[in-house]
Amino acid sequence: MTNDLKNKKEIKDNSKKNPENASLPNTDVINLILKESKAYTSMELVNSYISKGESLEKLPVQPLYVSIKALPIEVKTHALSLLSKEQRETFYDIDLWSKDDLDINEFSSWVSSVAKSPDDHIRYEFIESDQFILFLKGRFNVWTFDVEDPEYPDHDNYFLTEDNLLLFEFDEENEIVDEVRQLIRDLYTKVGVEKAYQHLFKMISEDYMIYNENQYQAKKERLREYGFVDYFDALEVMNAFPSISHIDFFIKKREPLTGNISTLGKLQTLHQNSIIAFEKNSGSIHEELSKVSDEKRFNYLHFNFIRMLNASMEYYGVLKDGPVAMTRIGNQNRELVLLGMSYINEQRSFDNESLFDYFDFTDIYKIGNSLIRILQKDVKKALRNNLMEDSTDNFLGASFDLFLDDFFSDLVKYRDDDNKIVVVNNAEVWRKLQSKCNLLRELMPFIKGLKETYLSLKDDGLLSDNYYLNYDVNSIDFEAIILSTFINFSLEKFKKDDSRKMGVSIEEFKDFLGKSKLSEGIFDNPYIKEKIALFAQTFGLDKIDNIHAYIMKILHDHLSGYEFENLRDDEFKHIGGPIIFNTLS
């Protein structure tokens, strides 16, 4: 790549003319942004511009911001004069705020960089900026000072302005006092004592909350054209639809809506790490984008894609964290967009039109995100209502514990019967996930009842580690209890005695293994299927969807892969699944 960075229009033109890219559809905004991001993200290129003193004004803001942030402070200080005023202001805006609160610590790096700048213009511009004033109000206590009747703080953490009319008080952990003091001196030098005092006095006389809100709104509007999204707009994108039926209604009623994008907006792009996830495993997205034929729609989708990614990064607060965090959120965004597209195509037909003629990236992301969040909300509610919220509580058993770990990870995953893990990024897998969530929610009252009985027996001292061969009391969980109960039921122990014992003997276990012929398989086992059906009906579990599949799966997880006929009795202590009574001692 040459050191002469092409602007966005040139990249678009070249992508149309270059034979190597002839197969890439001209309306594929993701391919275009990927191409642009690789050019604009080059740290070598940015350093080359800085070392030559060439202007950085034509570079898009988001990738340039990430690159500048990674520079040593000495280089960053030099780079400030190569940026446009609007770019500098945007960088200050981004770092001064974390969501809807001031981020004083992050902004301090700009205070240090500006204070070290040899360019008077850069320092004076910063000193008079709203961002610096808001930083001062958030970081210092500023008081008027009467030389004739002086009142000093009862500590040494303060300094006076050059005219001795204002006192700046700070805490002991403030590491940039010298830089701030120097910048305030620069203000006095530039505008004189009277105007400097008036400027600073106006600052301290403004109500902090009102000033804070006004500056937040001003920042929001300044950043909008660059494709950035403020925290409240990000919340709107991230907030899930209330229910699946609301999603379905939105999909069926959605009509095309295309806004006008400004020239500045059209020139924006993303840092490579925030979009690199879309370079692979995104075939269906590229296929739909290739059908878009309207240039106005193309420009709209281009800008909307940037805003969608920036919204998620704002929500999770990763833009300031650097490339690795951005890549992680980019992967999450891709899977949710793929899920949203798959679900939309399941609900609605577009014939020869593109899905993107009706839905923009924000719509699609919101649908995919909502499909996951609605299920997560329902599962959390079920766990909370049945006293299973404690992350250290493993009573649910390994199958549900693994399911919840996968379900609440950054990339939501699903395990099939063979424990093969797939990412939930299409409607088919999402339906399986929904079914597993429904199973857990419907089982929760039953699990809660068993847990309460188990804890009651434990608290009453009726359980002892010495009673059991393959479990200690604290490791007994729902799977162990339900499998023990199922085996006792299959052997018709409930008909022969009413003890409802919580476990099986080694001989009883061997008897079950012989009758069920588990070594020949579990999922297609007629004996197992028959007994599970009767078991579910007897215990009122037959109304729960997939209860039969669940019991077969935990039987498979715990009992497959063993040659039980070759095991000595003492070796059964290494077997999971049912609780085995200790009859060896």
* Gross geometry: elongated
The unreliable regions are: 1-25
How much helicity do the residues have? Answer: 55-70%
Query: How many beta strands in the DSSP annotation?
Result: 7
Distance between the termini: 76 Å
Widest β-sheet, arrangement of strands: 3-5-4
- Proportion of residues in extended strands: under 5%
Query: Averaging pLDDT over every residue, what do you get?
Result: 89
| Structural classification | mainly alpha
Radius of gyration: 32 Å
SSE order and pairing:
Layout: H1 8-17, H2 29-40, H3 43-52, H4 61-69, H5 73-79, H6 85-96, E1 97-98, E2 101-102, H7 104-115, H8 120-127, H9 130-139, E3 141-144, E4 158-160, E5 166-169, H10 177-191, H11 193-205, H12 208-224, H13 231-238, H14 244-253, H15 263-266, H16 272-275, H17 283-289, H18 295-316, H19 323-347, H20 361-385, H21 398-407, E6 413-415, E7 421-423, H22 427-459, H23 478-490, H24 493-496, H25 506-516, H26 526-538, H27 547-559
Antiparallel strand pairs: 1-2, 3-5, 4-5, 6-7
Helix pairs in contact: 5-7, 9-12, 10-11, 13-18, 18-19, 19-20, 20-22, 26-27
